[in-house]
Amino acid sequence: MQCCPQVIQEVGLCICLRDILKSSEGLIGHGTGIVNVNVEFRLVVFRPFKGEIIEGKISGSDQEGIKSIIVALEFFDDIFVPGPVNLFEGVKYVGAEHVWVWVTEQGDELFFDLEETVRFRVEAEIWTDQSPQAPTTDDTPTERKSPYRIIASMAQAGLGPTLWWEEGEAEE
User: Fold this and answer.
1) Cα gap 158→98, rounded to integer Å
2) Which residues form the RNA polymerase III subunit Rpc25 domain (predicted)?
């Protein structure tokens, strides 16, 4: 089945076929020889709910924010944390190092390093229609947007790099 890994609009990212519930007998098209079979099946789909806390890894950051990917399965990389809005108050971007830094009230600098394991909260979903477009006469490549994108936040206690919060738990 060619549904995995693909995004079905307003459903989510298809991970795999779970099972086939029923199928009809094939109907052969007159003159074409094409066989049509109606199939009822279930899929395993990734679509986190708004407010869900997920662990991921930072795969990149720029002045616009932090891009994260899911750690455990490593199958989805369209999660974006816009900065500084969805990061802690007092956060700043250090362009020379391409990293976001949170300066705490005590003056400590805590870094959002690349490949760092982080916890983030799902805030919104963005769906982009991927319908085929008619070819154009000019040769300029058109930028294709991701069909499914998640906007997340790391602006609450317990969110952000897990290393920060593990150290706090060890001290208690």
Assistant:
1) 23
2) 52-165
